[in-house]
Amino acid sequence: MDGILFLVRGLPGSGKSTFATHIWNEYAVCEADKFFYDKEGNYNFDPSKLKEAHAWCKNEVETRMKDHQINQQYYPEIAVSNTFTQEWEMEDYYKLAEKYGYKVVSLIVENRHGGKNVHGVPDDKLEIMKNRFEIKL
Predict the structure, then answer these.
(1) What pLDDT, on a 0 to 100 scale, did the predictor assign at position 121?
(2) Which one of 33, 46, 56, 133 has the lowest number of neighbouring Cβ atoms within 10 Å?
(3) CB 23 within 8 A of CB 121
(4) Residues 6+ apart with CB under 8 A from 115
(5) Positions in the chain whose pLDDT score sits under 70
(6) 3-class DSSP state for residue 134?
(7) pLDDT at residue 122, as a whole number
(8) Is 86 strand, coil or helix?
(9) Which residues does residue 104 pair with via DSSP β-bridges, in sequence order?
């Protein structure tokens, strides 16, 4: 294995994106949220396209992994910054990592700094996500 795939997990507002883009360059960070930004940089979330956004994100990761196979200097590290509240939500990324020879590291970012989610996720939805967050030890 010569690459590392970092799965950055946490609730909205925890700082996943901030952490990921601070550690890795923008091109190495994949997020389903990026699917909802238009060319002008406006965030236009559409819940009916969430499944499409996650498929797009996985495709972005696989494209980077393929690039790494062609040239080892490309994407030796890739970060996926999504909520991943349930273990099954990471399964496809584990499969991609196995297929392309990446080691997987899962990181959980906690909101201990009082951060607010920038995408306007309602408090009741945050509570549901918090209650379903799975951790495999």
Answers:
(1) 84
(2) 46
(3) no
(4) 13, 14, 15
(5) 1
(6) coil
(7) 84
(8) coil
(9) 5
Residue 1 has what DSSP assignment? -
DSSP state string for 19-78: HHHHHS-GGGEE-GGGGGB-TTS-B---GGGHHHHHHHHHHHHHHHHHHHHH-TTS-SEE
Nearest to 111 by CA among 18, 23, 13, 20: 13
Tell me the per-residue pLDDT of 15-27, one tens digit each, with 9 for 90 and over: 999 999 999 988 9
Q: Which two tokens stand for residue 97?
A: 């990592």
In the block, residue with structure tokens 């970092």: 6
- Would residue 60 be called left, alpha or beta, if left means φ above 0 and alpha means ψ between -120 and 50 degrees? alpha
What was the pLDDT predicted at 1? Answer: 61
pTM, full prediction? 0.91
Helix axes 91-100, 50-70, angle to 10 degrees: 10
Residue 3 exposed, middle or buried by CB count within 10 Å (0-12, 13-18, 19+): buried
**3-9, strands of its sheet edge to edge:** 29-30, 77-81, 3-9, 102-108
